[in-house]
Amino acid sequence: MNRKSYIISLILMFSFGFAQAQTTNDVKFDYLGKIKPRSAKEIQSSLISVGAEMMDRDYTIYKNWKEYLGPLGIKKARIQSGWAKCEKVQGVYDWAWLDEIIFDMVAQGVEPWIDLCYGNPIYPGGGGFTLKNKHLPSSEEALKAWENYVRAIVTRYNDYVDEWEIWNEPNYGIQPEQFARFSVLTAKAIKSVQPDATVIGLALGSQVNYQYADGVFAEIEKMDGIKYIDQVVHHRHITAPEIDEPEIELERVIDKYSSRIIIRQGEAGCPTQKSDMFAMKDQDWNELQQAKHILRRLMYDLGRGKETSIFTIIDARYDIDGKSVWNYKGLLASNEKLEVSRVKPAYYALQNATSVFDSSLKPISRFSYEAVNDTNLFVFAHENSYTRKQAVVLWYGNRKPTLSVEKQETDITVFGGNFDFPVWVDLRTGEVFAIPENKWKRNGNIYRFSEVPVYDSPVLIIDQSLITIVADNK
Question: CB atoms < 10 A from the CB of 261, how many?
Fold first, then answer.
């Protein structure tokens, strides 16, 4: 054993909350109901973001899915700024499309964080403006235009946005020295308008190439530019979301240059069907696996106190070399008109998580427990900042999510626990069960739980005071 604001929002919250597939039928505890969803406006803050990328290239259309954003309960959304879409005539900016998105997101209680990208073909050497062709602006004229654009967009949204990310996945094809210079130029432009802005660097791709990060930061340090970078972001689209060796190495690299810089996860998702392009391609996936996968990534990040973002809100149709190619990592399914055709189970799963894991729940860094059947068992604990009541998260990981919802019973002892009325929750379905009195006992602050159902999707042992339960007709 190891020791270790819309009316529609309300309609959507309740209709979504009771429409989930593959419910938990093999749990022997007494059923109490389901987690009540909370909209973004009902949550003060959290570390959970959702991807709302690709609108700059019209691969998704905001008005077609915006009614699903607030009810999801996330507090931030990542969008891409689309220089080429904003400036189609040199020196003339058209903000209408971004105004529609940013002002509505804020009205729904969601704060956009903006990825400043890509290039612009109206300038010689203006850089690439697609995922496949995203080289940096290189000519003197283009770099000056980029700098002007950055100042203009930060000025435009100064009262609504305070987190600005520089480019996207530069480690795929851009030399460290070039990206370092570009990062410092862009960061200076941001802070010249918004001195207290949070500047987010690197946006490393899923491999989390920490050697590349080291190269970039070594060059930034030579330019005395470390002071302009506040955070570093990486992406992580992998089959088993708990594999974190390159993330740990990235932490070591960044800490060499500054202990002030925070690392966050900015893009992690899972497709719902096989495709021949994009991360995690050439594998069979379905909607059950997606729901498990995004929850595991989310709980793994939150358990370490790491800000996290799920990719992405809706399936996106890319235009690659004149061919339409779908990225099926959306929480919402899309039709050919880029309208919502269906809400996937992962949307509901994330909605359950956002209802529980706001910023009032803090990870317990020195959490201690003992468990049987603990091979590949992941356990994290959180504590309410005010009441000190706790939530313990458990799941089996380190491999691809299975097609099964069958549970394995385990016994777990929690040291330093704090529960008045512990309940068991399947975070994927939102179902809540009372833990029978004969299945748990307390000795001081030591709690022993027996025959706890666990599978390869996160479940909770949580004090009932930390959730709101609504009855249904199960």
Answer: 17
| Cα dihedral 226, 229, 230, 232 in deg (nearest 10) | -110
Residues 6+ apart with CB under 8 A from 111: 75, 76, 77, 105, 160, 161, 163
Q: What is the CA radius of gyration of the chain?
A: 23
Please tell me the distance from the alpha carbon of residue 429 to that of residue 35, in angstroms, as a whole number: 9
Give the DSSP letter of residue 447.
Answer: E
Spatial distance between the Cα atoms of 453 and 426, rounded to a whole number of angstroms: 9
Tell me which amino acid residue 435 is. I
Q: Which domains does the chain possess? A: 7-37+362-470 (2.60.40), 43-361 (3.20.20.80)
Looking at the chain, the number of H-run helices and the number of E-run strands are 11, 24
pLDDT of 45 > 50? The answer is yes
Report d(CA 324, CA 309) in Å as an integer: 26
Query: For residue 45, what are the contacts with CB-CB under 8 A and spacing of at least 6?
Result: 75, 358, 359
The alpha carbon of 236 is separated from its chain's Cα centroid by a whole number of angstroms, namely 10
Kindly report the backbone phi and psi dihedral angles of residue 178, in degrees, each rounded to the nearest multiple of 5, phi listed first. Answer: -65, -40
- Spatial distance between the Cα atoms of 365 and 21, rounded to a whole number of angstroms: 34
* Cβ proximity of 432 and 32 under 8 Å: yes
Give the pLDDT band (50/70/90) at residue 2.
very low
Q: Are 35 and 430 in contact (CB under 8 A)?
A: yes
The torsion region of residue 349 among left (phi > 0), alpha (psi -120 to 50) and beta comes to alpha
CA distances from 1 to 4, 303, 370, 378, 410 (A): 9, 21, 6, 13, 12
Place of tokens 């939150």: 302
Q: 57: which 2 tokens?
A: 């290239």
Q: Tens digits of per-residue pLDDT, 152-174? A: 999 999 999 999 999 999 999 99
- C-beta of residue 232 within 8 angstroms of C-beta of residue 250: yes
Q: Which residues pair with 314 in a beta bridge?
A: 332
Report the b/e string of 430-460 with b at 16+ CB within 10 A: bbbbebeeebbeeeeeebebbebbbbbbbbb
Q: Both tokens of residue 378? A: 């992941």
